[in-house]
Amino acid sequence: MKPNSVKNFPASLFLHDRTPDGPPLAIELRAEGRPAVIEVSGGTVSTRLGTAPAPDLVLEGHPQLILGLISARLTPAEARDRGLGIERDPGVLERLQPERAGISQAG
């Protein structure tokens, strides 16, 4: 993830708030030295540069691993095994990810 591309990160193309009545959540992404945040609230998914004061989840590592996890191509366990740092509850991703038939999101 290039620092200038985060503003245009197409989160809404593949991440959808499957629980629009749920509480707001923030996922902090730390890749290539410039943090970004995915914010989810009221059915809307957006991204911005910066940090979250109290993120529900923090993902730190290579941008491809972050993308693999948030797009449900990797489980949390697979992403950790490949070196992704995961702090707090990766279960919050289930609210955003497309369903993976027959594959548990737990990690």
Chart the SSEs and their pairings.
Layout: H1 11-14, E1 25-31, E2 34-41, E3 44-49, E4 57-60, H2 63-70, H3 76-81, E5 85-88
Parallel strand pairs: 1-4
Antiparallel strand pairs: 1-2, 2-3, 4-5
Could you please describe the fold and organization of this structure?
This protein is an alpha+beta fold and 107 residues long. The longest helix is centred in the middle third of the chain and has 8 residues, at 63-70. A five-stranded mixed sheet has the order 3-2-1-4-5. It has a single domain (3-94), classed as SCP2 sterol-binding domain (Nonspecific Lipid-transfer Protein, Chain A), CATH 3.30.1050.10. 17% of the residues lie in helices and 27% in strands. Mean pLDDT is 85; it is low at 1-8 and 101-107.
Q: What would a concise description of this structure say?
A:
This protein has 107 residues and is of the alpha+beta class. 17% of the residues lie in helices and 27% in strands. The protein has a single domain, classed as 2-Layer Sandwich (Nonspecific Lipid-transfer Protein, Chain A), CATH 3.30.1050.
| Structural classification | alpha+beta
**In order across it, which strands form the biggest sheet?**
3-2-1-4-5
Shape assignment: globular
Please give the largest β-sheet: 5 strands, mixed
Number of separate strands: 5
Count structural domains.
Answer: 1
Q: Could you give the distance between the termini? A: 24 Å
Radius of gyration: 13 Å
Helix content estimate: 10-25%
Number of helices, counting only DSSP H or I runs of 4 residues or more: 3
Query: So, the CATH homologous superfamily?
Result: SCP2 sterol-binding domain
Oligomer kind: single chain
